[in-house]
Structures are given as C-alpha cells and as structure tokens.
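Late entry, written up from scratch paper. The run itself happened at the end of the previous shift, but nothing got recorded in the book at the time, so transcribing now.
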Amino acid sequence: MHKAEMISYRIDINDKPKVVVAGDPRLAADVRKWMPDALCDLSLVETGASLIDSLLASNTDLAIINSNLPDIDAISIVQSVSSLKRPPYLIIRSDTDEEIDRVILLEIGADDCIALSCGPREIKARVRAVFRRRFGQANHLNVFVKNPDNHLPEATFLGWTLDRNRRQLYSASGEVTSLTHSEYLILNALFSEPGVIKDRSSLMGLMADINQVFEERSLDVFISRLRKKILTRGRNDLIETVRGKGYRLRVSTSDQLPSSTR
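Output as recorded:
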C-alpha cells in the first residue's frame, strides 16, 4: 500500500480513538490497513452480544457493524447500540442494496448506512470523514489532531440544555436524551442560533461532511428521529418546520430568547 493511501493522524498514544468492527473480518482487515495499531485501538467482534459487551466496557468512538450478525437482526442491534448512554458513531452495512432498508436503519438510530454493493474505497472515505469530523481538523498534509481537552460550552434554550461535550440533551427536569452524531450536529446548529431558520442545504452540508453519499431524504429521517426523542422528554415539539425554508427551534410570540450559551 502506498503511503498516500493511509489515513494519517497525530494522536496521543494514550488517547487513541477506539473502533469496533462487528461481524466482518475482511472489513476489519481493511480498516487496520487504513489506520494501523499506532493510530487507533481497533477490535473485531463476531456477535451482537460481544459488541454490546465491548461498548459497555469502554467508550467507543466508532462502530462499524455488518447487518447479518449470527445472533441478532440489524434493527435490534441498531436499537440496542443507539440506546446506550454514550453511543458511538454508528455505521451499519446493509445486507441489501434497497434504499428502504437503509432508511429504516437510519430512522431507528444509525448515523450512516452502507449498501451491500458499496466498495472498500467508499467505505474508507466514509470512515475518514468520521475521523475528520470527530477527532480534529485536516491540515494541508492531511494530518489530524485529536484534542480531548477542548471543552465546549453548554447551549441552553427554554429549559433545554445541550451538552456539547457529552453530546446529550437535558430537559428542564434533568432527563437525559442521548444523541447520535448526526442528531447532535443538527441540534447543535439549531441551538447555536435559537429562532433562526436553518435552511435544508446548510443542515444537509453538515451531514454530507460525514457521509459522502448523503441523500436529501436522510435529513427528514434525522429530524423525525430527533422529534420523537424530544417528545418523550417534553410536551411540545422543540423543532419547528418553516415550510419552504427549513427548521428552527420553536419560539412562541410570548417567548424571549435566552442566552444561547453559558
């Protein structure tokens, strides 16, 4: 393999990103070629039960899951992983090329879903985009720096609090909602400017940065999923659809906008 083909990072050896590949030894071997042991802590598990045990044992940054695990179906494993207190960024490889299968997996919690026919080059691009987004910025040498000490301020809005470091949403009563990476990106954009309409193209741009073949329909899936999570913690829908324009945090005429950060 030529050096140019490898994903390169400057990472503290004691703080390497943790990656788990479930049910696909060939994919795990490919990931190890792109990111050798010096650059990430990579492990392979063969079953859904082993995957959950691994995720509970330590904080994992990225999980890549083959949908046909021997002990659990794709829908159940996505639901189990996304319901964890600190879910990893979740990429699942479908066992079909049907769009509806990928949409369903996105709706229930996956951050990205890869069609069966997707080749190693595209998978590499998706993994690389995840690391670029989650662990640092790329410089002109294509080297990425992970900075775990970069503390981000919380964002608040009408009793809701978005913890940007844990990527969790807290209701006024303190109930916690865990967010997938894609859900967090959308909600963070809305919390950054409460009441300001975020057009679809700007929100899709956030998604496209981590998903090289992002489909417009996926944005609707993520928004719908966010709304369902929020409605379980409060009586009102926090996200408002502005027809023909985009989305914003819902503000009634009697509400005054509080400070967006604290």
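The two ends are 48 Å apart (CA to CA).
(Scratch paper discarded after transcription.)
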